[in-house]
Specification:
Keywords: Membrane, Transmembrane, Transmembrane helix. The protein is an alpha+beta fold. Strands 3-2-1-7 form a four-stranded mixed beta sheet, with no helix packed on it. Strand 5 and strand 6 form a beta hairpin. It is globular.
Length: 173
């Protein structure tokens, strides 16, 4: 028997990165108050690290889409796996050619991941584990986190948008 309701525990666990970052920033303020150049420098270092981590945690929180879409997303060793009753698939980050935000007939957000030699994989943004896609998308060469996050703010009537596309470099020969 748990002392915390399961829905409240789920919300707290979703915000844990932000709480940890704010704790580190608060620790920096506490160390800064010791006085002396060493402790003040150390406090500023902790404070800046905590604020940087807080910004990253807020971006990650913004990527969360509430809802219960079917399927589970797993990311392991540079591969995105979407397990679903219908339409699941695998995408290697090295084979990814484009990431697009699209909408289905009901207006639900979908991530469309295109590959060259393999079929396109469509992942609902509200699927379990889809929050981890943000880290995978940001790791792509030339990806802009702000552009990826702004795609989540689009309405279905705005239509699909490509948030990342691999740029082909010409051969040197």
């Amino acid at each position: 028997m748990s002392l915390i309701r399961p829905d409240l525990l789920e919300q707290l666990l979703r915000w844990r990165d932000l709480f940890g970052a704010l704790f580190i920033a608060g620790l920096g303020v506490w160390v800064f108050r010791f006085g002396g150049y060493f402790y003040q420098g150390l406090g500023v270092l902790f404070g800046l690290a905590g604020l940087g981590l807080a910004v990253a945690a807020l971006r990650q929180l913004r990527f969360h889409v509430p809802g219960g879409a079917p399927g589970v997303v797993q990311i392991d060793e540079g591969q995105i796996t979407y397990l679903a009753p219908q339409g699941g698939g695998f995408v290697a980050l090295s084979e990814l050619t484009a990431v697009e935000m699209d909408f289905d007939a009901t207006g639900a957000r979908l991530w469309r991941l295109s590959q060259e030699r393999y079929p396109t994989v469509t992942i609902p943004a509200a699927a379990e584990g889809a929050d981890a896609l943000f880290d995978a998308f940001v790791s792509l060469p030339g990806a802009r986190p702000g552009h990826i996050l702004s795609a989540l703010d689009r309405s279905p009537r705005d239509g699909p948008v490509t948030v990342w596309q691999r740029t082909r470099r010409p051969a040197l020969t």
